[in-house]
Design goal:
Layout: H1 2-15, H2 39-47, E1 67-73, E2 75-78, H3 80-89, E3 94-97, E4 104-109, E5 118-123, E6 127-131, H4 135-145, E7 149-152, H5 155-160, E8 163-169, E9 178-179, E10 185-187, H6 192-232, H7 240-260, H8 274-286, H9 289-345
Parallel strand pairs: 8-10
Antiparallel strand pairs: 1-6, 1-8, 2-7, 3-4, 4-5, 5-6, 9-10
Length: about 350
């Protein structure tokens, strides 16, 4: 009864002209027990803010005429020969190797007739580049690719180190291809296959270099305490076995970047024209590939010098320990010989 009178009083106050009730709420006030709220509870409910949703990066490219290309670093290596029939059978794509390159696989969705084509470029070094592919299809494609990967990256690495960029077609100046002022890739309306391949090559090199930078930063954090110990003259808190492993890790990274990776070189193809070469250099400049590569090599050289210094220090320490051990053994032998000589000329035990 009291609750009903309270609700009726609230309705009368809300009905008065020029009066805005302090505890107005979006819920319907009734005398029902399940929908009745105490005024303090109503005020607490109104203070709850709606959570802010962060839009994904690809929402930037929802402008008509602007399409999206995304690159994902998924693993150290992908078995393209085993992946080729799966793309054709399971995903119904037309897949083939790029001309004069067995390390790149190109797949096209032929069902998108009359629209912008959906293309996929899979690199043997563990990078998947998708052109105009929706997010739902991306998850399905990556799930199939994961089955043929070696040394797969963690999911957070795949997402954080991925790259998304928009691309448009140049219908006014067909001679110009490259980056625009809006940070979008400009393609020509005709012969887009090789332009997309060059762009995919640069995107693959960019995301792969990002993974290497992250690995090097983790390596630097792991050995950062050594410089502090050397600076303040503290005891080195690293064994020879661990130093050897760190030495092997930095050499393995240098081997991948300097010797085994082909993504840091221009793509190999027959019709590599001057326009494609200009486009390749333009994209490399946009992502600062040469500058980042120079920095990462300088960091690796510094880490290698630190590990070599530490290895030499531990070797000297081990050598010094062996020398003192030999000196101790010589002293023990000298004591025994001295005791033997004294006992021979001055028998004290007879």
């Amino acid at each position: 009864m009291v609750r009903t009178r309270f609700v009726n009083g609230l309705r009368i106050l809300n009905a008065l002209p020029g009066v805005k009730f302090l505890f107005a709420n979006p819920f319907r006030l009734t005398a029902d027990k399940s929908t009745f709220y105490h005024p303090q509870e109503l005020f607490a409910l109104q203070l709850k803010r709606k959570p802010i949703r962060i839009k994904p990066p690809e929402t930037k490219y929802k402008t008509p005429g602007v399409f999206t290309v995304r690159a994902f670093p998924t693993a150290e290596e992908i078995n393209l020969e085993a992946l080729l029939p799966v793309l054709e059978d399971a995903l119904s794509l037309k897949a083939e190797h790029i001309q004069q390159s067995l390390d790149v696989l190109r797949a096209v969705n032929e069902s998108t007739l009359g629209c912008e084509s959906q293309e996929i470029y899979v690199f043997r070094e563990g990078v998947v580049v998708l052109w105009n592919v929706p997010s739902i299809a991306i998850n399905n494609i990556l799930a199939e690719v994961h089955k043929f990967e070696h040394h797969r990256y963690a999911n957070h690495v795949v997402e954080q180190d991925s790259e998304t960029i928009g691309y448009v077609y140049n219908y006014n100046q067909e001679d110009y291809v490259g980056m625009t002022e809006k940070q979008e890739v400009m393609l020509s309306p005709t012969n887009t296959q090789w332009e997309k391949y060059v762009t995919s090559h640069v995107l693959a090199a960019n995301v792969k270099l990002t993974v290497w930078e992250r690995q090097l930063e983790k390596y630097i954090r792991d050995v950062e305490f050594i410089t502090e110990d050397l600076k303040y003259g503290r005891q080195i808190r690293m064994s020879e076995h661990r130093v050897l492993r760190k030495h092997g890790a930095i050499f393995a990274l240098r081997h991948v970047i300097n010797l085994s990776s082909a993504l840091l070189e221009p793509p190999q193809m027959m019709n590599y024209t001057i326009r494609l070469d200009t486009m390749y250099k333009d994209l490399n400049t946009f992502y600062a590939m040469q500058k980042r590569l120079r920095f990462i090599k300088e960091k690796m050289n510094h880490c290698l010098e630190l590990i070599l210094l530490l290895s030499a220090y531990l070797k000297d320490k081990h050598r010094l320990r062996l020398e003192w051990l030999v000196i101790g053994l010589i002293l023990i032998e000298l004591c025994f010989e001295t005791f033997y000589c004294v006992d021979r000329f001055f028998p004290i035990f007879k």
